[in-house]
């Protein structure tokens, strides 16, 4: 099948969107390709379609587990075989999936970047027939970018394993600098680059300096109909603002990564369906959420970078209809932003301390911990050691770059189970251990094929069927695991931290001082760009586009700056109009004043009289005391 047939057959779409077909062509011709398209532009199809045209498997590197899971489900729903490997999965589980990629008919293997650290993963990939490496959110490869993920740098090593496979890098935000960096860091040969304009003509960007932000928010909600999204800085504020909106009769709710998973999912659905009108959230909300009719996105605080702002505000108006991106930023916020960043940037000593404390937190002996995967509660860690969350996070990123550990965001993994011995051995065990007979029988009956692949299980469900408590089921499963009968991976909803190297003492902990300095400079530049954006009277859209290397963009005509300009021009415009009408009328006949004034359509009565006086003074019209004429 060719690419158009694939598009029709699997997605039911008749035609490609702008640039999609050019990008797909380039990939099919075997070129290393960089594609820049705004969010919602349809980047996924650019790698999914060519991968289906060709034989073999496409490896997709993606930074967010939630996005990966979404796409895998989506592909499966279209009858396409796809799998994902990410932090928190067991060794054996990963093993099985990789095997299937080598021997099976799997078309897409999604990987979170830190998986590339593993020799096992790289070795197995060398046996795969890889037709394409797709790098989603490719700006993560660049330390100049706003969302640098050190493990992305491992992608070039992956290329050496499968030298024939072209690379397609995709992103929705990248300055000229970052684009160049992507091409270098991904070792592109003869790169083909496609860039779609980032202009969003239906989106009206507004910066409002109101002191009373709550009142401003209410007035936005009152004046703009439809769904809204409000971004705040921290978790506490999400609930506060949501409550405030509710008290004012607006259906609102809140969302952040700490809300329990099912509740989070439910709220997200309700917002998508319009049952909740306004969602108040941290920046954890939004990635991969496809809602076309968001009418406004309000930021209650300054964002950390224009890249982040463009992404978040860009969630408004995907349907092409009028929408607003409002940034509430007064003078004190601007100073606070600067202070917050210099305060939260760790020193070398603090980075080292974070590492040291981490070892203590997990009670690791020196030299131990290599390859260890741990649930990591950052908030709890910070509380224990009295360090700010931002600073700790930033220190962890440095440690990640130095290759000491990897960190992934919250991952929900249901409980899973795999028998490690044969049917016969399980049967024998049942006979010898009558106390476990019921549980084993129930598992075999409920989840039949758990001998080749991990099966999802629900302990609560098992507990009900076996008529014991939840805790008893967990206890028995753990016992069976100790006996080597099965492998049991309990459910988790925590960020995952992996020690890549054994714990080292502070003497031997290496941190690249120059690099830390460089990061500080980059962060400072990003913040300065945000401050410039809010502070200058240049069309907001022009400013954003210039930042993304589109220097010659037109004024948008709908941002607060453009609207203010129009307003300032308007009085003159009206007077011009009145003049024009007076002259036109008098051209055909003479008028008495009492008839002339009501015949003029533009302006108020005083304005009309004043224009008539002006034109008389200028000698452009005449009067004999009664009639007015030219
Ligand atoms: P991005 O990754 O650029 O943000 P996605 O790949 O998630 O965007 O696509 C956004 C939406 O656009 C998806 O719902 C997708 O099905 C839809 N889409 C993509 N390409 C086409 C097309 N050629 N015709 C119609 N819809 C498309
Ligand atoms: Mg995407």
Plain-language structure description:
The protein is α/β, with parallel strands linked by helices and 630 residues long. It folds into five domains: 3-195, P-loop containing nucleotide triphosphate hydrolases (Rossmann fold, 3-Layer(aba) Sandwich); 203-329 and 524-547, Rossmann fold, CATH 3.40.50; 338-413 and 495-511, Winged helix-like DNA-binding domain superfamily/Winged helix DNA-binding domain (Arc Repressor Mutant, subunit A), CATH 1.10.10; 416-490, Arc Repressor Mutant, subunit A (Orthogonal Bundle), CATH 1.10.10; 562-629, Arc Repressor Mutant, subunit A, CATH 1.10.10. Helices cover 47% and strands 15% of the residues. α5 packs parallel to α6. The longest helix has 29 residues, at 560-588. The termini are far apart. Bound molecules: adenosine-5'-diphosphate (ADP) and magnesium ion (MG). Magnesium ion binds next to loops.
CATH architecture group name of the largest domain: 3-Layer(aba) Sandwich
Which structural category do the helix and sheet elements fall into?
alpha/beta
CATH class of the largest domain: Alpha Beta
Let me know the average pLDDT.
91
Oligomer: single chain
The distinct ligands, each listed once, are: adenosine-5'-diphosphate, magnesium ion
């Amino acid at each position: 099948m060719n690419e158009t047939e694939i598009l029709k057959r699997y997605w039911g779409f008749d035609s490609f969107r702008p640039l999609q077909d050019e990008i797909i062509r380039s990939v099919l011709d075997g070129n290393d390709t960089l594609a820049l398209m705004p969010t919602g532009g349809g980047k996924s199809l650019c790698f999914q379609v060519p991968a289906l045209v060709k034989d073999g498997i496409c490896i997709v590197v993606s930074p967010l587990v939630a996005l990966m899971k979404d796409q895998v489900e989506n592909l499966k729903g279209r009858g396409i075989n796809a799998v994902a490997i990410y932090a928190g999965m067991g060794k054996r589980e990963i093993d099985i999936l990789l095997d299937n990629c080598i021997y099976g008919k799997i078309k897409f293997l999604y990987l979170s970047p830190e998986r590339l650290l593993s020799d096992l993963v790289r070795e197995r990939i060398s046996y795969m027939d890889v037709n394409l490496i797709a790098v989603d959110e490719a700006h993560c490869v660049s330390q100049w970018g706003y969302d640098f993920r050190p493990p992305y740098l491992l992608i070039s090593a992956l290329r050496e394993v499968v030298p024939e496979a072209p690379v397609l890098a995709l992103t929705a935000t990248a300055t000229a600098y970052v684009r160049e960096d992507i091409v270098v860091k991904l070792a592109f040969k003869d790169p083909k680059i496609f860039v779609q304009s980032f202009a969003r003509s239906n989106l009206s960007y507004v910066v409002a300096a109101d002191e009373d932000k709550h009142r401003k928010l209410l007035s936005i909600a009152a004046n703009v109909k439809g769904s809204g999204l409000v971004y705040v800085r921290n978790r506490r504020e999400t609930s506060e603002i949501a409550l405030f909106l509710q008290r004012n009769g607006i259906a609102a709710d809140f969302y952040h990564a700490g809300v329990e998973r099912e509740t989070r999912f439910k709220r997200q659905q309700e917002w998508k369906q319009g049952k909740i009108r306004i969602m108040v959230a941290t920046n954890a909300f939004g990635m991969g959420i496809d809602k076309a009719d968001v009418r406004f996105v309000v930021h209650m605080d300054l964002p950390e970078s224009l890249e982040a702002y463009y992404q978040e505000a860009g969630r408004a108006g995907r349907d092409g209809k009028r929408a607003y991106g409002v940034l509430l930023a007064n003078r004190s916020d601007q100073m606070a932003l600067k202070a917050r960043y210099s305060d939260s940037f760790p020193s070398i000593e603090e980075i080292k301390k974070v590492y040291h404390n981490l070892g203590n937190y997990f009670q690791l002996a020196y030299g131990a911990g290599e390859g260890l995967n741990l649930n990591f509660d950052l908030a709890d860690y910070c509380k224990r050691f009295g360090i700010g969350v931002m600073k700790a996070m930033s220190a962890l990123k440095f440690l990640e770059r130095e290759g000491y550990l990897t960190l992934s965001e919250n991952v929900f993994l249901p409980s899973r189970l795999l028998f490690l011995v044969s049917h016969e051995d399980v049967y024998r065990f049942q006979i010898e251990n009558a106390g476990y007979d019921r549980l084993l029988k129930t598992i075999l009956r409920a989840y039949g094929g758990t001998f080749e692949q991990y099966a999802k299980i629900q302990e609560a469900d098992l507990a009900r069927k076996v008529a014991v408590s939840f805790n008893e089921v967990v206890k028995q499963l753990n016992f069976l695991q100790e006996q080597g009968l099965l492998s049991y991976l309990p459910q988790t909803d925590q960020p995952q931290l992996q020690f890549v190297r054994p714990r080292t003492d502070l003497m031997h902990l290496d941190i690249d001082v120059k690099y830390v300095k460089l990061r500080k400079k980059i962060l400072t530049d990003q913040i300065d760009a945000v401050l410039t954006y809010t502070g200058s009277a240049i069309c907001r859209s022009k400013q954003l586009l210039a930042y993304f290397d589109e220097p010659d963009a037109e004024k948008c005509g709908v941002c607060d700056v453009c609207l203010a300009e129009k307003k300032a021009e308007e009085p003159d415009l009206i007077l011009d109009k009145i003049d024009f009408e007076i002259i036109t009328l008098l051209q055909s006949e003479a008028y008495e004043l009492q008839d002339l004034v009501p015949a003029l359509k533009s302006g108020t009565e005083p304005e009309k009289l004043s224009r008539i006086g002006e034109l008389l003074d200028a000698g452009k019209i005449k009067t004999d005391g009664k009639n007015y004429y030219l």
